[in-house]
């Protein structure tokens, strides 16, 4: 059985005039930088010249789902030998440059690294979108949004949230509406957004990502209103039905003041990055990686099999592949 660590709840957001770099923080496991693990052994040197493919393995379960499915296909469809190298997401870019990693399957922004390694040094290449959209923001249960549809007008009128502060207050929020976060170590801009929007709310920390999930699950089961920080893709979305509360959209520079922010988090269109050497190798693995694209729901399904059902990566991948043949066959060379 897998140990439950904190998964992808906090994001490191750089307050700058451009779209901030973001890194999913926390994990069920701690990466061991530079240590490769043999994930699958296929037939190296098979027709098509696939050979060995080294995938960066970043420490959050959504990324693990990407690597599980692509790793399985590389081995079983293309006869590749697959190595998964446990790295944090910034370090993996440097391994792209040195030749220690061929593929990053899920990149959360990192404009500075892309500018240097893709545009300037040309040692890496953008391999196209994953199809996943990284959404960070405030969420409420669907039943609460359905009963109070004007809460979804907060994109043009964020002060509407004050109307619901009394319903959302708890013993921990000091008479104000509660905004539930994970743990204080997660880097968010929620306090600054409360100030920027002039809201009568207080951030309350659940203590961990696991505790936040349990609070959300309890609220949904008991049909009790809750406003919570949340991210997508997220395997927990297979367990609860949450709705993103729209806030005034992110624009470059709207988060320059770290104390008062009057915009939502940006949306991240996730992409794949590969080493130029891999892209130009002629390996059929590159074409598979480039064609790979799926939805948040697809990733959540595989991640839930790994995290919630405690399936092995290979078993979780095979279950999804068996159920979705038309999707993955379109990725093959």
**β-sheet strand percentage:** 15-25%
What is the mean predicted local confidence, pLDDT? 87
Rg from Cα: 21 Å
Note the total helix count. 12
Largest sheet: 5 strands, antiparallel
How many individual β-strands?
12
Q: How far apart are the termini?
A: 36 Å
Report the uncertain regions.
1-21, 25-35, 38-48
What level of helicity do the residues show? 25-40%
Structural class: alpha+beta
Q: SSE order in H/E notation?
A: EEEEHEHEHEHHEHEHEEEHHHHH
Apparent shape? globular
Overview of this protein structure:
- This protein is α+β, with helices and mostly antiparallel strands.
- It has helices at residues 61-76, 89-98, 111-120, 142-147, 165-168, 190-197, 209-221, 276-279, 284-291, 296-307, 313-323, 325-329, and strands at residues 10-11, 24-25, 35-40, 52-57, 81-86, 103-107, 124-141, 177-181, 201-205, 228-232, 242-244, 267-275.
- Strands 6, 7, 10, 11 and 12 form a five-stranded antiparallel β-sheet that branches. A three-stranded mixed β-sheet has the order 3-5-4, covered by helices on one side.
- Strand 4 (52-57), helix 1 (61-76) and strand 5 (81-86) form a beta-alpha-beta unit.
- Helix 1 (61-76) crosses helix 10, helix 1 packs across helix 11 and helix 10 (296-307) packs across helix 11.
- It is globular, with a radius of gyration of 21 Å.
